[in-house]
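Recall the central idea of this unit: under ordinary conditions, the amino acid sequence of a chain determines the structure it adopts. In this exercise we apply that idea directly, starting from the sequence alone.
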Amino acid sequence: MNKKCILLILVLLFIFAGIVIFNHKRPQSIETMSAFISSDSVSVQADDAGIVKSLPVKQLQKVQKGQVIAEIETKVTSTRPVKKITTAKNNSQNSQKEYENAAIMYKDGILSQEEYDKYVKKISSKEKKAKVVEQPRNEVVVSSKITKIYAPIDGTVIINNLKEGDSIKKEAIVARVNSAHKEINAYFPTLNKDNLKSGNSVDIMVIKYPEKTFNGKIEEVMPADNKGIPVRVVFENDTTSLDFQNGDSVIVKIKQ
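Accordingly, the structure predicted from this sequence is:
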């Protein structure tokens, strides 16, 4: 074999070795082994036993904190005097003015529906305290009380298999509200440990929206366990208009 052939072979080997070393050092695509959407979820309980009077919201409807999501009707047994009840002198004009002020503040958005209901209840309670009874002989009266249940947070409401007319026990779960704030619980292979840093930018592909790619970033990297390296990822896009549900599968890739 002449020197030219030997030189050519050495050059080719050198080029091949360079390609191998380059590919070995070049960052490969870093992708999650598993990842899913999650959010805080708050359960809402019935304060009293009763009948579901109304469900003003629908399944998976978005709600705001303080919005009425259910009304429970409870039968209340009380006593009242047989004879006429007289009302002690009170300033009815002031009470009327308070009702009007509350209505204006609710209309202008100063009071939420929950705050408005409490305000009106307080005024009504103050008026009732002014009543005095002339006759001690009482009779039993059965009346209805409506208890409103409010959304504790902004989010999506999940009705607990209830419909109007159903009976419900005290402290039973009426609904759950999934927080509007969504994040991702992801697992990366342990060999990618050095590439996982808080603040790293990522691409997010949500399986139910295959045509979209969302921007995100790593919020927290946790110690590895037997599933891999747990990582908490947050969206950087506004996703409030999209129907993301807890458990929706996603793929997270670290941007190279």
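Residues 3-25 form the longest helix (23 residues).
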